[in-house]
């Protein structure tokens, strides 16, 4: 079945440093979604990418979807303590009828 | 809109007991999901439903059952609770659809139910 791999599993950064998490799918995706889960909270939708090569920005967050629609990345510029949490990608393969989540990257930020 | 609601928020069960985790959404979404999340781990799909009367297994369905008699409700049933079912359970809903470029989906999660089986 479809697999979505996410790396790294954990990332510890100093406040102000940049952070990137990568997502790779074993199959071509219709779209990729990104979610953030704060400690003790539930996953919250951040953004969705649907076009090959698409790049979207939300303030300090930059999301990319690969040309082959099999990989994606989330980059945070100049991390802040409010960025802590686990970031999940989820890939929708319409043949599967549902999105498959990666295992997430947990970000900790040292002030 | 309340979004996705889950009850209870927290429950302690003894081994062998049964319970139903409730999930409801008021967004008229066709798709609903149940996930479990063990401490420090990712989301594992238990069951999902693409519409009322239709359910399908996810990657970890053993020990659980679901039903979808209405669009709004998607309860998860544990028949014989085991310590391995200690976890946080999240319900989610979405409306998959064809956008301008491709199929699109946004999942909305409930606040979760923390279950401890002793």
Structural features, described:
The complex is a heterodimer of chains A (111) and B (118). Chain A has 111 residues and is mainly beta. Helix content of chain A is 0%, strand content 57%. Chain A has no helices and 11 strands. In chain A, strand 9 (85-93) and strand 10 (98-101) form a beta hairpin. With 118 residues, chain B is mostly beta strands. Chain B contains no helices and 13 strands. In chain B, strands 2, 4, 5, 6, 9, 12 and 13 form a 7-stranded mixed sheet that branches. Chains A and B meet through strand 4, strand 5, strand 9 and strand 10 of A and strand 4, strand 5, strand 9, strand 11 and strand 12 of B.
Instruction: Please state the CA-atom Rg of chain A, rounded to the nearest Å.
Output: 13 Å
Number of helices of chain A: 0
Q: Which range does the strand content of chain A fall in?
A: over 45%
The ordered H/E elements of chain A are EEEEEEEEEEE
Give a quick precis of the structure.
The complex is a heterodimer of chains A (111) and B (118). In chain A, 0% of the residues lie in helices and 57% in strands.
For this entry, give a set of tags.
heterodimer; A: mainly beta; five-stranded antiparallel beta sheet; 0% helix; 57% strand; B: 118 residues; 13 strands
Describe the secondary-structure layout.
The complex is a heterodimer of chains A (111) and B (118).
Chain A: E1 4-7, E2 10-14, E3 19-25, E4 31-37, E5 44-49, E6 55-58, E7 61-65, E8 71-76, E9 85-93, E10 98-101, E11 105-110
Chain B: E1 4-7, E2 10-13, E3 19-25, E4 31-37, E5 43-51, E6 54-57, E7 64-66, E8 76-78, E9 87-94, E10 97-98, E11 103-104, E12 108-109, E13 113-117
Parallel strand pairs in B: 2-13
Antiparallel strand pairs in B: 1-3, 3-8, 4-5, 4-9, 5-6, 7-8, 9-12, 9-13, 10-11
């Amino acid at each position: 079945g479809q697999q979505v791999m996410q790396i790294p599993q954990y990332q510890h950064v100093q406040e102000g440093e940049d952070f990137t998490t990568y997502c790779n799918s074993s199959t071509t995706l219709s779209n990729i979604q990104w979610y953030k889960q704060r400690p003790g909270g539930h996953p919250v939708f951040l953004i969705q990418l649907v076009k090959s090569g698409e790049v979207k920005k939300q303030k300090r967050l930059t999301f990319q979807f690969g040309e082959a629609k099999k990989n994606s990345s989330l980059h945070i510029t100049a991390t802040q303590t409010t960025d802590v949490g686990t970031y999940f990608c989820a890939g929708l393969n319409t043949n599967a009828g549902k999105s498959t989540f990666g295992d997430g990257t947990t970000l900790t930020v040292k002030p | 809109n309340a979004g996705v609601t889950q009850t209870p928020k927290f429950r302690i069960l003894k081994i062998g007991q049964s319970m139903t985790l409730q999930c409801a959404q008021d967004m008229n979404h066709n798709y609903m999901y149940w996930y479990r999340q063990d401490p420090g781990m990712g989301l594992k799909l238990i069951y999902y439903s693409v519409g009322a009367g239709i359910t399908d297994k996810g990657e970890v369905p053993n020990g659980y059952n679901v039903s979808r008699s209405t669009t709004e409700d998607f309860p998860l049933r544990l028949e014989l609770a085991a310590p391995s079912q200690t976890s946080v359970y999240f319900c989610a809903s979405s409306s998959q659809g064809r956008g301008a470029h491709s199929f699109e989906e946004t999942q909305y999660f409930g606040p979760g139910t923390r279950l401890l089986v002793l």
